[in-house]
Amino acid sequence: xxxxxxxxxxxxxxxxxxxxxxxxxxxxxxxxxxxxxxxxxxxxxxxxxxxxxxxxxxxxxxxxxxxxxxxxxxxxxxxxxxxxxxxxxxxxxxxxxxxxxxxxxxxxxxxxxxxxxxxxxxxxxxxxxxxxxxxxxxxxxxxxxxxxxxxxxxxxxxxxxxxxxxxxxxxxxxxxxxxxxxxxxxxxxxxxxxxxxxxxxxxxxxxxxxxxxxxxxxxxxxxxxxxxxxxxxxxxxxxxxxxxxxxxxxxxxxxxxxxxxxxxxxxxxxxxxxxxxxxxxxxxxxxxxxxxxxxxxxxxxxxxxxxxxxxxxxxxxxxxxxxxxxxxxxxxxxxxxxxxxxxxxxxxxxxxxxxxxxxxxxxxxxxxxxxxxxxxxxxxxxxxxxxxxxxxxxxxxxxxxxxxxxxxxxxxxxxxxxxxxxxxxxxxxxxxxxxxxxxxxxxxxxxxxxxxxxxxxxxxxxxxxxxxxxxxxxxxxxx
Length: 479
Ligand SMILES: [Zn+2]
Known about the structure:
This protein has 479 residues and is α+β, with helices and mostly antiparallel strands. The protein has helices at 25-28, 34-40, 60-77, 84-98, 134-139, 143-158, 161-172, 176-184, 189-195, 197-204, 209-225, 231-244, 251-254, 259-273, 285-295, 386-401, 465-473, and strands spanning 111-115, 122-125, 129-133, 321-325, 329-334, 337-341, 347-352, 356-358, 364-366, 369-375, 406-416, 419-429, 435-445, 448-457, 476-477.
């Protein structure tokens, strides 16, 4: 079962900013009737912000060579989504956006990859190698918001921020002599051998705040010129801010200007561009289909070099059982499962090895196994609905922590060690990808409501059903 901190994909709370400014047809005609347009336009509207790459000791061809080598290394180190449809979609969307980069910027051979990482992040290496985390696709409310992230990254490439940053690092080290050497070396090899290929990525991606702000501004222009609602840029920041509240900010956020300031600057640029066009694109059926595909991808932990990148499913539950004794009850669980005491006390979980996964944001989530909790409640023995009410509360609490959890079979009466209980089936997003089944048995005891939550991915549930029944049949209450 997922944990409290799972990403919510709801669109609520997104504040729409930016002016719905009216864009006169005269504005587009400006170039044709210069004299006339002067009368109507310039006093109201500033020009779009002009941005140029900064000081750089590398040439654009070296950007490509450096980027290619770091990208090849990154592809080995990162878990890619390995979803051809998703990569094809990112390539199609990214190429469309790249065409709208300011004319005069170098034509880079853009490449786009989906990374199987739930952290909300994206990055671009010099020369046009763009990596988009599944987390960024999953959190984007529509195509315009994903296009916003990608436009931001494409702008880093066009403005050559990676090698500008490397230039600064080289100059700061007083290695001007080496710099001239690098200039003569078309592969950018000196930088790479000095730093190690992947470590070079660290230097290449450590952008300044000014660079981030430039990528926001140019990204907004690209969005606008591609026909997307340019407000999507600010909306994505706000979403990112909401998603990461109270948690460690993802990399995409860490080095960026404060979100309020970013939103303000983006809004300013939208005004300069002439406001939000009335027919601006927001979403597409393609995006929604790709997002569904990404949400269903198996979750992969960051691979340790030398280990297979896809986490294998746990071994089948053992037919031999171990005994567990708590104060209020005892039970038997498969002897190849481990026991995880609940840090809050009052609860315990049993799960196979690889049954507890990282949900992608650094939190543990149980994908296979059993969670037992005892919630202290005062029970009126005369109240015929007490069990029903208590069960409803247990489910509501689970749903608060797991917004996508739904009841699939309404509660039915069962007996657990001779005691009246309720059995309820629910579905939820599985941290292993796809859907999971949650079978919940609740019963009232003098200690409070005791709930047994049996969890397995929907696709594997058939292998666990019998084990769950055996565990529940083994439950003995203390008195
Ligand atoms: Zn950036």
